[in-house]
Amino acid sequence: MSSNLDALYRRVIMDHYKKPRNRGVLEDGSHTINMNNPTCGDRIQLTFKVVDGVVEDARFEGEGCSISMSSASMMTQAIKGKKVDDALMLSKIFSDMMQGKEVEEDVDLGDIEALQGVSKFPARIKCATLAWKAMEKGLKEEEQK
């Protein structure tokens, strides 16, 4: 990756960290998931509202490093308005990206693409995937209702 692209990605990550989207509590959420990463202390509470198989809203609370919190911000932004299956597919694509696998070119990841460089730092992958794992767990539980 070029240094200009690295710098852009760092700016996107820091923007989401300093001005997180969808941070807060969702009072009328249909599901709440709490997860933490015991290795580094990151923790997240994810609340979302699913109506007729669509993620109508998603919010998060928590504390952690810039990677963890910016990933949560990007994830909540990305899944709002998506069908549950599409949100879960996006999570699979994100997981593949974190493992260094190529992402299909026709998939628009938006700001999430800025986290691609994290795959080079194995110790930070759990930070980036914490919110996504919480989302997967919650949506799968929601589907079983």
UniProtKB/TrEMBL annotation:
One Pfam family matching this protein: NifU_N
Alphabetized InterPro entries for the sequence: NIF_FeS_clus_asmbl_NifU_N (IPR002871)
NIF system FeS cluster assembly NifU N-terminal domain location: 9-127
Top-rank taxon, per record: Bacteria
Matching SUPFAM superfamilies: SufE/NifU
Alphabetized Gene3D superfamilies for the sequence: 3.90.1010.10
PANTHER family: IRON-SULFUR CLUSTER ASSEMBLY ENZYME NIFU HOMOLOG
Name this protein carries in UniProt: Fe-S cluster assembly sulfur transfer protein SufU
Organism: Bacillus salipaludis
Encoding gene (name): sufU
